[in-house]
Amino acid sequence: MPILLISRYSSGEWSIINTIGILVWIFGFTFEVVGDRQLKSFIKSRDRNTGNQIMKKGLWKYSRHPNYFGEAVLWWGIFLIAFGVDYFYLAIIGPITIFLLLRFVSGVPMAEERYGENIEFQEYKRKTPAMFPNFFIK
Q: Where are the extended beta strands (E) located within the chain?
């Protein structure tokens, strides 16, 4: 929705909120890419015989799904980029939908369902938030 509004109703005027939107988008995109790369590297290098099957380093130390967090944040950035266009308020549909899908439907629940009986994952889950990072975790 935000992209459709921007492309259809953009007036060409720019504000500080639009600039903040770009910075939020860059932050979200970077967070998602770093999280994905860390997970890919972990999967590639892990030794299945050691029992360490859960990624708990890098961004994954602070969030069980930093890549999903980054995806949701970049959509909030797009929402802010749409600020000032006609029908701007409709743009909120995009980030809310993405967040709800990732957190409660196809993201977190589907990614975690295979770890239901994994004791290491249950401990990780108890200490680590699903999406929004907690940088105060020791």
A: none
What sign has the CA pseudo-torsion 95, 96, 98, 104?
Answer: positive
The torsion of the CA quartet 116, 122, 126, 127, rounded to 10 degrees, works out to -130
How many domains is the chain partitioned into structurally? 1
Separation of alpha carbons 98 and 127, rounded Å: 25
* Rounded Cα distance, 109 and 118, in Å: 15
Quote the pTM value.
Answer: 0.87
Domain residue limits at 79: 2-127
Question: Is 26 part of any domain?
Answer: yes
| Tens-level pLDDT at each residue, the chain (138 residues) | 666 676 666 666 788 998 999 999 999 999 999 999 999 999 888 766 666 689 999 999 999 999 999 999 999 999 998 888 888 888 899 999 999 999 999 999 999 998 988 999 999 999 999 999 999 876
The answer to whether position 134 is within a domain reads: no
